[in-house]
Amino acid sequence: MNTATTPSPLTHAELNEALAAVRIPACPAIVTESMREAQRDEPSIKVLTRILASDVGMSAMAVKLANSPMFGSGAAVRSVQQAVGRLGISNILSVVIAVALRNSSSDLPAGLMESFWSRASTLALATGLLARKHVGISADGAYTYALFHDAAVPVMMSNFADYAALYAAATDRGTALVRVEQERFRCDHAVAGWLLARSWGLPSKIAAAIRYHHDPELYILPESELPSDALALIAVTLIAEHVLAEFSKDADPVGGRPFDDARTFLGTSDADLDEFREIVAAALR
User: pTM (2 decimals)?
Assistant: First the structure.
């Protein structure tokens, strides 16, 4: 992340320094296969179903997501085939990538990773639900971004022995954490997440949002660096984090300037926040 007053794209030197500082896990074949199929003019549901069914974790996550408040209207989904039919292509890819990322951090403490991904999944669901209340924000895109916006945190843990302790001790996991990451590791989780997203084939909008989500000047970045639809994903996720913190002890509280800027950008009123609290509370029951 660039903390200068006027942020600019990464130079080749900065990119090389980031790449030298942190090893990004290689994109697994199962993700590549899923991406290739999803990008066909007419993706095969049978192929995507086979991919999900080949992994117990992917199967379980797909069924759970399909039955979540974000998608769970109607009869309960009981099979991968039914889940695929309900979720759609972009959410199927999110499931594949999420499980693959979890598997790539198998060297980390299982309890720590279970807590991390559980928190990310809860935030993603809340963000997807709140995105539906905002015209022009894709619920699927919001879910995907919220699920992966901090996905490089386990990557940083795998690369640096003292990162887990630093992250756990951080009371401010926004700009302050990024500054410490840059000073100690020559790379931060926003840049590492951007590199990860690009390497694993996530949409460019998602990658851009990940890259700048802790930038203190993100609302004045040019459209060429951070498109407005990517900025909207950051803003709605911040609102979801703020609301979710009232109901979940695992959620990170969000307030101050980041929250105020997100409210201003989205035009979120106090009445809107009350409605969002009801939506999130109902989803967590």
Answer: 0.90
- In 3D space, the residue among 52, 29, 35, 7 whose CA is nearest the CA of residue 202 turns out to be 35
Residue listed under structure tokens 């209340």: 133
Angstrom distances, CA of residue 74 to CA of 77, 82, 84, 124, 196? 9, 12, 15, 21, 36
Interior angle at CA 178, CA 257 and CA 256, nearest 5:
15
Name the residue range of residue 93's domain.
12-284
Split into its structural domains, the chain has a count of 1
CA distances from 130 to 123, 138, 199 (A): 10, 10, 29
What is the 3-class SS of 51-87, one letter each residue? HHHCCHHHHHHHHHHHCCCCCCCCCCCCCHHHHHHHH
Q: Is residue 245 part of a domain?
A: yes
Q: What is the pLDDT of residues 215-259, one digit of tens each?
A: 989 999 999 999 999 999 999 999 999 999 988 776 677 878 899
Q: What distances in angstroms separate CA 157 from CA 30, 57, 146, 192, 257, one per listed residue?
A: 24, 22, 20, 12, 28
pLDDT tens-place string over residues 93-102: 999 999 999 9
Residue 257 maps to a domain: yes
Q: Concatenated DSSP letters for 175-220?
A: HHHHHHHHHHHS--HHHHHHHHHHHTT--HHHHHHHHHTT-TTGGG
Q: Structure tokens of 79?
A: 């099979």
Q: Cα torsion for 4, 214, 135, 40, to the nearest 10°? A: 100
Q: How far apart are CA 138 and CA 206, in angstroms?
A: 12
User: What gap in Å lies between CA 255 and CA 81, rounded to an integer?
Assistant: 41
